Structure formats: structure tokens, C-alpha cells
Amino acid sequence: MKHSLMLAIIFLACTTMHGATLRLIQTIPLDGVEGRIDHMAVDVAGQRLFVAALGNNSLEVIDLRAGKRIHSISEMREPQGVAYAAETNQLYVACGGDGAVNVYDANSFRLVTTLRDLEDADNVRYDAAAKRVFVGYGNGALAILDTTTAKHIGDIKLAGHPESFQLEPKGNRIFVNVPTTKHVAVVDREKSS
User: Fold this and answer.
1) What is d(CA 142, CA 188) in angstroms, rounded to the nearest whole number?
2) Angle of CA points 84, 85, 91, to nearest 5°
3) Which tens digits make up the pLDDT trace of 36-66?
4) What residues pair up with 79 in beta bridges, in sequence order?
5) What sign for the dihedral angle of Cα 65, 69, 75, 77?
6) CA trace torsion 30, 96, 93, 123 (10° rounding)
7) What single-letter DSSP state applies at residue 180?
8) What is the distance between the alpha carbons of residues 49 and 167, in angstroms, rounded to a whole number?
9) Whole-model pTM?
10) How far apart are CA 173 and CA 164, in angstroms?
11) Alpha-carbon torsion (190, 40, 81, 152), positive or negative
């Protein structure tokens, strides 16, 4: 059955000191996009949202000012994670289907390079201060990518596949959900351990 997705933009409005309410402020149709979507990234200055449309094998680019899709990058194999590196104006898209991380110019949407051999590439996080992108992949690792060169410069080994992870905002730690071992790993992103 053919269907299209809609992206709902929710605005958090503080109504009291003790609570908040969510209010729908915009709905953006994604006509022709089928299947589930996975992770998203935002270009705050450019007011663009990048949506990994895993089930559609595409990356959708949304203009938040105009409230519409402005571009689609297709023919990816299960795009899951996406990160936007503002200082290089590049997009890092992790594709679980072929174990690749595709790096795109965020203006022209041309492919800059592809980093391979990252089996089941999944979540992506960007560390602007260190100019690094981290990609969860395989049976247990975070790939470390240098955004100044768009190269894979190392790995942080884990006891199992990282389902999700977060970078500590004011510190060097990464908190990694490793469901197969039923724990959250805490690693130092500067020491890569």
C-alpha cells in the first residue's frame, strides 16, 4: 500500500513553572516517502532538518522556514543515523544496509566521500569542539571520524552493538546503551577507551 509520511513539528510552550504543554505548530508532508524514518539532525543557522528515511532508502532535507521538503538524496541502503557538521557544512549519513558512512556537501548535496567497512552503521553523534563524528557500528564499536579530513581515524571498542549513545555536553564521556550485555558503557572520548 502506498502512503506518505508527515513530519510533525512540535513546539514546547512553558505554561507554568511546574509544567509544560506540547503544541503542534506545523505539519510537513513527505509525499512519496514510504516506511519508517530513523534519526534526524538539524542545521540551526540554516533552519534545515535532515531526516534519515530508513524505509525509503533516502535522506530527506526539510526547509523549516518554508515548511517543506527541498531535497531528497536517494539510493542509500538503510540510512539510519545522520549528523550535520556546521564548520565544514557536511552531512554524515550512516547506512546500516551496506556498512557505509556517506559524507555529503550540505549545500549541493553532492557526495564528498564514502567511508566503508562499518557493518550495521547506526547512530551518529557530532562533537563540534573536537571536530569529530562518532558512529555506532558492528558487534561493538564507535568509529571516530575527523570532520576536517572526513577520515576514519580510530575506534572505541565495546562489548556489543551500540544501540544508542549520547555525548556528555560538558565533559569527555560517552554514554552507550549496549543491550546485548544489558549495560550502559561509559567511555572517555579523548582516551578512546
Assistant:
1) 12
2) 45
3) 999 999 999 999 999 999 999 999 999 999 9
4) 95
5) positive
6) 100
7) G
8) 20
9) 0.90
10) 14
11) negative
